[in-house]
Design brief:
Order of helices and strands: EEEEEEH
Number of strands: 6
Strand order of the largest sheet: 1-2-3-6-5-4
Strand content: 35-45%
Helix content: under 10%
Structural class: mainly beta
Oligomer: single chain
Shape: globular
Largest sheet: 6 strands, antiparallel, barrel
Radius of gyration: 17 Å
Length: 123
């Protein structure tokens, strides 16, 4: 018998309240928005364009460029983003951004469907 029950909720990374600007790119738009809080795995942003839930995004903030992620939730003019592959360096996200060109738009070929949930794995 154990002295304490297993924790039913996994711990989540520490969130920092921030006042940052980020560029969020989706398949059909690019928008500048405010980042309200940031952690190593995600961010909460103001959502003036009503991003669709589970939509794929690229985020540029600070010296971090084109972080891949998806919209985890969207409600009341805000959205929660979950980043895919890397732990976000919060200090790098706070540095001045400078000029960063938008990610190239691939309108044809396999790159246009690279993140499609309907893409077959053997393509």
């Amino acid at each position: 018998m154990s002295d304490s029950p297993a924790d039913p909720f996994p711990s989540r990374p520490r969130r920092d309240s921030v006042f940052l600007k980020a560029r969020v790119e989706s398949s059909d738009l690019v928008v500048e928005c405010r980042v309200r809080n940031l952690s190593e795995s995600g961010a909460c942003i103001d959502d003036p364009v009503h991003l669709p839930c589970d939509g794929r995004v690229l985020v540029t903030m600070g010296t971090l460029h084109h972080l891949e992620g998806r919209v985890r939730w969207a409600q009341d003019g805000r959205a929660g983003l979950l980043f895919d592959h890397a732990q976000v360096d919060v200090a790098a996200a706070r540095r001045p951004r400078g000029a960063v060109p938008p990610a190239p738009r691939h309108l044809a070929g396999w790159l246009s469907n690279m993140h499609s949930p309907y893409r077959r794995g053997d393509d």
